[in-house]
Amino acid sequence: MGSEESVMETSRHEALGLSDDQVLEMYRTMLLARKIDERMWLLNRAGKIPFVISCQGQEATQVGAAFALDREKDWLCPYYRDLGMMLVFGQTAKDQMLSAFARAEEPNSAGRQMPGHYGDKRFRVISGSSPVTTQLLHAVGVALAGKMEKKDFVSLTSFGEGSSNQGDFHEGLNFAGVHNLPVIFMCENNKYAISVPIEKQLAGGSVAARGQGYGMPGISVDGNDPLEVYEAVRDAAARARKGEGPTLIEATAYRLVPHSSDDDDRTYREMGEVEEARKKDSLVQFKKYLEDVGILSTESGAELEREIGHIVDEATEYAEQAPYPDPSETYTHVYAE
Amino acid sequence: MGSEESVMETSRHEALGLSDDQVLEMYRTMLLARKIDERMWLLNRAGKIPFVISCQGQEATQVGAAFALDREKDWLCPYYRDLGMMLVFGQTAKDQMLSAFARAEEPNSAGRQMPGHYGDKRFRVISGSSPVTTQLLHAVGVALAGKMEKKDFVSLTSFGEGSSNQGDFHEGLNFAGVHNLPVIFMCENNKYAISVPIEKQLAGGSVAARGQGYGMPGISVDGNDPLEVYEAVRDAAARARKGEGPTLIEATAYRLVPHSSDDDDRTYREMGEVEEARKKDSLVQFKKYLEDVGILSTESGAELEREIGHIVDEATEYAEQAPYPDPSETYTHVYAE
Amino acid sequence: MPVISYIDAVTQALQEEMQRDEKVFVLGEDVGVRGGVFRATDGLYKEFGAERVIDTPLTESAIAGVAIGASVYGMRPVAEMQFADFIMPAYNQIVSEAAKMRYRSNNTWYCPLVIRAPYGGGVHGALYHSQSVEKLFAGVPGLKIVMPSTPYDVKGLLKSAIRDEDPVLFLEHKRCYRLIKGEVPTEDYTVPIGEAEVKREGDDVTVISYGLTLHFALKAAEELEKEGISVHVLDLRTIIPLDKEAILEATVKTGKVLIVHEDNLTGGFGGEVSALISENAFFELDAPIRRLAGPDVPAMPYSPPLEKEFMLNPEKVKTAIRELAEF
Amino acid sequence: MPVISYIDAVTQALQEEMQRDEKVFVLGEDVGVRGGVFRATDGLYKEFGAERVIDTPLTESAIAGVAIGASVYGMRPVAEMQFADFIMPAYNQIVSEAAKMRYRSNNTWYCPLVIRAPYGGGVHGALYHSQSVEKLFAGVPGLKIVMPSTPYDVKGLLKSAIRDEDPVLFLEHKRCYRLIKGEVPTEDYTVPIGEAEVKREGDDVTVISYGLTLHFALKAAEELEKEGISVHVLDLRTIIPLDKEAILEATVKTGKVLIVHEDNLTGGFGGEVSALISENAFFELDAPIRRLAGPDVPAMPYSPPLEKEFMLNPEKVKTAIRELAEF
Ligand SMILES: Cc1ncc(C[n+]2csc(CCOP(=O)(O)OP(=O)(O)O)c2C)c(N)n1
Ligand SMILES: Cc1ncc(C[n+]2csc(CCOP(=O)(O)OP(=O)(O)O)c2C)c(N)n1
Ligand SMILES: [Mg+2]
Ligand SMILES: [Mg+2]
């Protein structure tokens, strides 16, 4: 953790080898993710889009993790909340809005899938489905292929803490462990699976603790801290590239909004609990960090917000005007044509 | 582990509270299981029965475990090798032979299932299938029912170390952990899943080590030592009855014969390895123990062998004569009639 | 008789059966505190507590497998799969275990359990919240499959399912939940599993359907009456066991049969119905048996024009009936 | 041309495809060192090593899911399910993932993978080593299902499956493995997926079948010829996509159709074939379409008299053909 001499003078991100520009970019991406997400809720409440599923509360985890990967060669099998990760890998605000409006131009599925069902060949993001945890095995398969082909990429797959109880989690970690594959399993623990809290979900209370049963490191990190997540994923990726096998990472944060636009979280959790969690919101905390280390000022912060507001506006306008797919598209691409 | 004063004079089984008669009965049951099993191979090789799947090498585990349960109220969801367990719970040599010959009178399924597919309402043994590890969840369901009905029975389910990698293992342990259910998960690790050795099967190398990931004790025992298995299961059952929840036990021994009568184990393991394992055969070791503590003599041992030989002969003769089910039975009991 | 919605009929049946029999309990994802993502178990947690209305971990195989174990013991579990699309991880437990328990144990052990699952589309649910799954289970002997279309049938059939001695897959069309309302008696009643019902008498064309498309058929029939086409509508209600007599009777009634379901055409249950008719009432037919079904694409897309294209509707059913009538 | 067995055709196809294309690899339980419990992958481990002939843990969902991931990446995995009965834990991965990958990604990602599985009975395999599983997958658009009956077709179709750009379920009747022998060219050839083949020409009755029962039909046809009954036998070979033209042609040829499969009758694939015929060739029929299939019980029991009762055989097929001929 940083070299002895300069620990006190060096900022946390410098100790991690991250430049000021890089952490600013991280913050910017987190903020963009948040603003896109917030706008989607407004659009949904205005009846303009049928459905939203949020990243809110998990931006630090997603952005920190994706920043630690090689965006030119690593592979992703993300889950429906990973907006932050997708932005880091290359998708844009426009892509998100096109998806929210289910337009033909939408890059994940041309409007076939719900928003949040990412998949993008440009960025080596394998198309995901709704049944949870299935993508975990695909990441293992990609890692196996990489090992067979003697490539040095890693694959990263993410999933909720509820989803980590599915059988596919167990089979995937075991397979990756036996074959010592370059894969990173990242659990985004947001403390709820829809209405079900961890206590009713997760025997033993820790996803990370399950790593050792597969002979792999099981690492707990603060999911509200992008630098801590970055470090854990960076190290896991380095191990994987060296042929030292898979890692399980559990990043714990909190889901700040209802499960989806169809949910009403007041039926199962105290709003006081949500308020408490908002105090630890990574966007608040990381902003403060950047201010403290002098990278962000009140002015540059406000300017950033404005800029992002513009981007989101433009993306929304573009997407709203964009055409739907033609009905005949219903019948295409069942098999290779 | 036993009271201070008398450790040196007390034999291991006395320290566990087991009488001489009880350990003799354990040995007798182990021997009976072995002899039935050996006879089945002969019958198979003589073309008289189509299929055998063996308990050989796992008798100590099975008998030790079953002895630690309450045969009047506890429930079993065993797997196809658990002949020893079934004998303890009440099935007879005749039952086994009827099953091997697929006769109508066979108690598990009236000849519908292969041998080794146990199920017996008399002894609260739920009918098992061939797809591995499914029974694990049934044991959890029984334990849930017991808890709901405020009964004090426990359920025990057993499975191979290969099978422990199936998704149902994970989902079952997690469910039992969350609901703190009175269930004992017993892995009979015999070092192979057909041809696949542990190294290619089990990331991390230990099933027991996976217990802590579910917040439950994960206990490794010598599967060749019926007393060690007995103690672990007895303690697990006591905890379960006190409402302290589930336990995972891994009893490691060795499969002394091919996977089944359809297998040829010379294609994937050195016969020297099998020979080594035979030296640790629980039947040899436990016999020696009983001789050492003066419970068994050369004469009484020989007498026991003769007696058991008779039982197996009789059972075989009876079963061979017994009628097949009538073809019309093919159509019955699809639904309640 | 009070008029209630399709989903309220589910809730009432569950509540009354839980009151009637202590062995009945409910388990699934979000069924407790939240009352289910569709609110089908609303109020049950409050009335019966966490022990009988169990919020399970997110594990469908465990939900099914634990329900099987509990039912074999003697309980009466009613498991919810949050969406029928998510029943797949439980497929092994349902097909290999629940459906075969009685047969494989020679009638010694059996699984009196119900698995409820909302299925079907037309709710912007996209590929994985819209599927029909009946064809994936219809060829699994040992399982019963119930697919009601009206609140009356929902309540009566769910009660029968809970009291049944065998595993029942109870499929609720989620588009019907709040759309379809109907009269339901306040006193206890059941509808027998395995009996189809003529929902409308007619002479020219027979439509055989179930679930949401049954309502499309009724609507189409109503409108076609004005054109002078008289439509006979049979609601299968249960697809396994299948009411063969009712199907043959309904065939004979008009000599022209249209089978309608939302599930994909190829491999869909309509094939079974068609085969049954042509095997047993071939000479009563005045026209080829026709099937109208979802297209052979993996599932219903999200984007509204695509979803609309996939879904059947009264218009499409009308056209198909008219063609047959004119045959 | 050398005469080889059905299972040797599997092995040869695998070996030749692995030689031809480095991206092809095999994974499954006991497929490596042991060469498969049926020996279908015999010799491959020695020739291609542990990296391309992978002994996996005992986890079908992982076998399918890992194969999907690898195929999406660009490899050509051939996964073995040790017995078709044990494909159920992988059902979610196959149905929700492999079959829908291309559609859901709008043709961006896809899964060129093969899942091989020995199915079918008559080998004292009892309930869980004898099942036919095709009906459980036949209604899943996005998946192809191949079910060859001869060594020639096995080899040619397995090669096509491996070269196909979509997921193929390749079902091998295990009773055929060593029972059925036939001529197979030594040079490279393929048999196209989706084409049925007339295996015998005849005029009185058409039998449509696949797998082991196809041989029962051929045997029956041979014997019935002596009675003066001329039987036309169509081997579907692929059930998805289905060769509709060939089915209709074969129907028109005789006007009397018998569909035969070992899988259970109700919900079995015969229903689809029957529905297709009665929808498209109704007026060409001289008799009701008949189906002969396994009984509607969960699976084939172990005890010999019960297994025999469940299984079809040439006698049963003969009787059914004769009835149709006399109709
Ligand atoms: C197999 C399956 N079962 C059920 C669902 C319905 N469902 C969607 S999200 C969700 C909760 C997921 O919780 P968690 O894994 O903690 O992720 P989070 O949404 O909290 O990020 C459920 C039950 C599903 N998508 N897939
Ligand atoms: C789901 C499933 N897949 C495959 C099989 C085939 N099979 C039967 S036993 C076995 C190996 C089991 O190994 P293990 O769990 O270690 O138990 P053991 O036989 O060694 O006691 C396999 C692969 C099966 N029965 N069920
Ligand atoms: Mg969560
Ligand atoms: Mg083993």
Sequence-ordered SSE layout with sheet pairings:
The complex is a heterotetramer, with two copies of chain A (337 residues) and two copies of chain C (327 residues).
Chain A: H1 12-15, H2 20-45, H3 59-67, E1 75-77, H4 83-89, H5 93-100, H6 134-148, E2 155-160, H7 167-179, E3 183-189, E4 192-193, E5 196-197, H8 198-201, E6 218-222, H9 226-241, E7 247-252, H10 271-279, H11 282-292, H12 298-321
Parallel strand pairs in A: 1-2, 2-3, 3-7, 6-7
Antiparallel strand pairs in A: 4-5
Helix pairs in contact in A: 2-3, 2-4, 2-5, 2-11, 2-12, 3-4, 3-9, 5-12, 6-7
Chain C: E1 3-5, H1 6-20, E2 24-28, H2 44-48, E3 53-55, H3 60-73, E4 76-80, H4 91-97, H5 101-104, E5 114-119, H6 134-137, E6 144-146, H7 151-163, E7 168-173, H8 176-179, E8 181-183, E9 197-200, E10 205-209, H9 212-226, E11 231-235, E12 238-240, H10 244-254, E13 257-264, H11 269-280, E14 290-294, H12 304-310, H13 314-326
Parallel strand pairs in C: 2-3, 2-4, 4-5, 5-7, 6-7, 10-11, 10-13, 13-14
Antiparallel strand pairs in C: 1-8, 6-12, 9-11
One thiamine diphosphate sits between chains A (81, 130-132, 160-163, 188, 190, 192-194, 255, 259) and C (29, 58, 60, 82, 86, 89).
